[in-house]
Amino acid sequence: FRKSDSTSVVVIGLGRFGSAVASSLVQMGQEVLAVDEDQALVERWADELTHVVQADSTDDQALRQLGIADFDRAVVAIGDDIEASVLTVLALAEAGVKDIWAKAITRKHGRILQRVGASHVVYPEFSMGERVAHMLTGRMEDYIEFDDEFSIARTLAPPFTWDKTLAESAPRTTHGVTVVGVKRVGQDFTYARPETEVRAHDHLIVSGPTRLVEKFCQSR
Ligand code: ADP
């Protein structure tokens, strides 16, 4: 396998997380080299992912033979086997891969990955659990929190905004949040403007400090 452009990504580990990353990348038109030590998984993904090879990613010689040093970006999607995950990140970093995304299953695991060269550590189960909790209690349909406690959420329009323009209900003054978009049933999202009128059953995209976004979504 020879990577043909700078957007190619190597994905190591084709478990649930890695295979989802790899197939999404392929759907987005990115070139992906996928690696797993499990031959059965390699065969299972061979059709969907164009370049799938069987190799042990903790073996730096094997990685070198795959031309890993030519890649700028890698995703290490090995979770349960912490030793393999750490050794793989280390091998990629030593090979000069600059942008290494790695999945961790615990905070300690994540800290080690950062130490050995991961540029981004993700905690898929932890993050999803946190999001579900926020969505459950905060009446949010979707929710993303950034590191600095700033969030963007999708929610049903709270009653106090119904049959008023955003200038009239003034969520920024009353709740300290910004309504970014409004969606009416059967229509696309539109950017919110002061003169945008909100009705019952509309969906809103709201941004602001997490605490205030939650309050807004729960308000009546
Ligand atoms: P998930 O929870 O996302 O399913 P897993 O940790 O169960 O993740 O899956 C990790 C995948 O990584 C498995 O398919 C496993 O075969 C693969 N894997 C583990 N160690 C290595 C290694 N040293 N080299 C290559 N692939 C590996």
UniProtKB/TrEMBL annotation:
<feature type="domain" description="RCK C-terminal">
    <location>
        <begin position="138"/>
        <end position="220"/>
    </location>
</feature>
<dbReference type="InterPro" id="IPR050721">
    <property type="entry name" value="Trk_Ktr_HKT_K-transport"/>
</dbReference>
<dbReference type="InterPro" id="IPR036721">
    <property type="entry name" value="RCK_C_sf"/>
</dbReference>
<dbReference type="GO" id="GO:0008324">
    <property type="term" value="F:monoatomic cation transmembrane transporter activity"/>
</dbReference>
<dbReference type="InterPro" id="IPR003148">
    <property type="entry name" value="RCK_N"/>
</dbReference>
<protein>
    <submittedName>
        <fullName>TrkA family potassium uptake protein</fullName>
    </submittedName>
</protein>
<dbReference type="GO" id="GO:0006813">
    <property type="term" value="P:potassium ion transport"/>
</dbReference>
<dbReference type="Pfam" id="PF02254">
    <property type="entry name" value="TrkA_N"/>
</dbReference>
<dbReference type="Pfam" id="PF02080">
    <property type="entry name" value="TrkA_C"/>
</dbReference>
<dbReference type="InterPro" id="IPR006037">
    <property type="entry name" value="RCK_C"/>
</dbReference>
<dbReference type="InterPro" id="IPR036291">
    <property type="entry name" value="NAD(P)-bd_dom_sf"/>
</dbReference>
<feature type="domain" description="RCK N-terminal">
    <location>
        <begin position="6"/>
        <end position="122"/>
    </location>
</feature>
